[in-house]
Amino acid sequence: MTRYDPAEIEPRWQQRWHAADLFRCETEGAGEPFYCLEMLPYPSGRLHMGHVRNYTIGDAVARYQRMRGRRVMHVMGWDAFGLPAENAAIQHGTHPRRWTEENIEAMRRQARRLGWGYDWSREISTCEADYYRWNQWFFLRMLERGLVYRARRPVNWCPSCATVLANEQVHGGRCWRCGEAVTERDLDQWFVRIRDYADELLQGLEALEGWPERVRRMQAHWIGRSEGAAVGFPAEGLERPIEVFTTRLDTIYGATYLALAPDHPDLEALVAGSPQAGAVRSFVARQRGRTLVDRFSAVGEKEGVFTGRYARNPFTGERIPIWVADFVLAEVGTGAVMSVPAHDQRDFEFARKYGLPLRCVVRAPDGLPLTADRLEAAYTEDGVLHDSGPYTGLSSAQARERMLADVQARGWGGRRVVYRLRDWGISRQRYWGTPIPVIHCELCGPVPVPEEELPVRLPEQAPLTGEGGSPLARLPEFVRAACPRCGTSAQRDTDTMDTFVDSSWYFFRYLDPHNARAPFDTTRVRPWLPVDLYIGGIEHATMHLIYTRFWTKMMRDLGLVAIDEPVRRLFTQGMVIKDGAKMSKSRGNIVDPDAMVARYGADTTRLFSLFAAPPEKDLEWSEAGVEGCWRFLQRVWRAFDEARAHLGPPNAPRPAGVDRGAALELRRVAHRTIARVTEDLLPERLQLNTAVAAIMELTNAIVPLSRAERLDSAEAWALREAFEILARLLAPFAPHLAEQLWEGLGHPPFVSAAAWPEAEAELLVRESVTIVVQVNGRLRGRVELPRGASEAEALEAARAEPRVSAYLDGRRIERVVYVPDRLLNLVVR
Prior knowledge:
By secondary structure, the chain is of the alpha+beta class.
């Protein structure tokens, strides 16, 4: 083959890898374990270039680590339950299972065509009963421990998907899946007490040094721990005070109204008999059409209505009005806030809109007291109190502690910690998911399905209409059941689980995928955890990545694992951009990976996805860039084809003369390239674009000797060594061409199983160094000198450098400061 032809070589090597079962990983064996994981894909039917980038990054790292002698776990599976399959079934009149399995087959074929080296013997699909039975098993374990409960709550409802969404699944007031505007409904739901782990989830972020700081900040914000005080405000018409939560107790003398959530539990009793009752009820009804996330957002104008009732400020005794406001949530804090418009911006904007008074009670430590009539925005910083009774003159911090002590002493409330994180609602009113293993009995209430009856299998058929409500509820043969406790007629729960349950623990199952007795054998998984490198999109920062951290801690408490965190190092790759926007079907800017492979080959497609941008940055699609990668691979093969006549047999002894001339220069470039690529492929660095650039530079150094008509024995030996290095360095990036080179060099297959090259230290030492020359401490020039040059040699070179000599003419050198190989400073007068 004189021309690089990927259509000829790529299928051949893929078949040989498959026949040799090259990427199988045994749970036990020689070599230090390395778990390289990419977020499992949803089987939508086609891979897109975002997939290609994500999984090629992982494949490059896995191949590199395998060549370094590590025992690499690199596995693929399918996040196979979910709404798209059910919606497609409704639209096309097919079954979700058939649609899903056909898509899995298509994507598996694409994955193999791209040369990704997975251990396919460990492949899982979350829609199979041998997987989802363990979702049900975990549900029962959590139910036993009180970590799962059922409650009627206002929830986010997607009318298009006809199902509930967790707060984390609502983005900008819209469904994360379909983009439909989300509303609010009251429904009986199953919840997981993820908030019980809020402190541990928050504190654990400090130990995740291998995670991007941006992800850690996003999670900390979403968990949202606030420490403050709960204070009771006696209210007209209520037997008990309205409890408010505040982190700024020092501003309580500036409270001019209370604001309640539209779904506050005492609201109806509060407004009963009030002339404002009708207006309040109408306002509450309108809020039902909005999402919890949207209402809590700091963006947009806030709305409210006066209840007609008043409360009493326990510190001042003042009578203040009670309002209902859309920005207050029953699920956050106590569902009631004391509003201090002079010192909270949201309260300020609300008060300005509705003509409510402002009272300034905190001033800057070095400033004059503020006045309400001159206030253009809330003063939200700590400061010194004024107009605050006995607390006037105290700093904000001092006042908070003294006020809190008084609140506790007088029985008005006490210290309180609240979280933005809500418990995880996992009930979904759809068919294609894990059935919830509970039977509802009129006598016994919700009763767990006995463990020996797991799995509760998803029926093969269900009426899929998309009209709302669970399709399982329309299957009498599924719904009818006997109560496991009393034996009377009962009904199965007809909701299915949120698919984020499936993805919370899948990579534990990869390690023991065929276990029929437990989710996994603890002894099998222990050596592999935490995951060494996890690759996926940052869009999951406050969804999957919080859920899986919680799930790991829950499994630890069940005694299944001995780790606190699931992932040692997280890498979030950038998006693939075309025409200034993220690739998507809706924008019509998709590039089909199959078309790319058909035209250029898998290696070119892989190489461009790794070379065109740093992996953590967005990648701008460029046909010219793809063509450039194609030409580079052609150049590599052409150089090898031209060099064949010069290359001796493998493992030939090193001849004399390789330490001088062209042979030495090529060897220096080759071994420095080893060092650069080795460093760039480390998980803590992962600069794959610069690694590819270094390989391109090595190819440039190889080409002149490849094209030479005649080489001496030293040059020929150095050229073979350079090609053997090149083949191994290319293996993670362009593995098919690397295998072809390796075979052409006379080695048995496979380069993918060969040892990673080691750089010879003496070839990494530069012959010359650049020395900075300063005159009176200011940079005046640089000189190139042999490494280890003496002070006298450095001074002579500096005098000969025109940019330096101009500052020495007619002046006397009084002192010389010389740092060998680095710096020469001349003190002159």
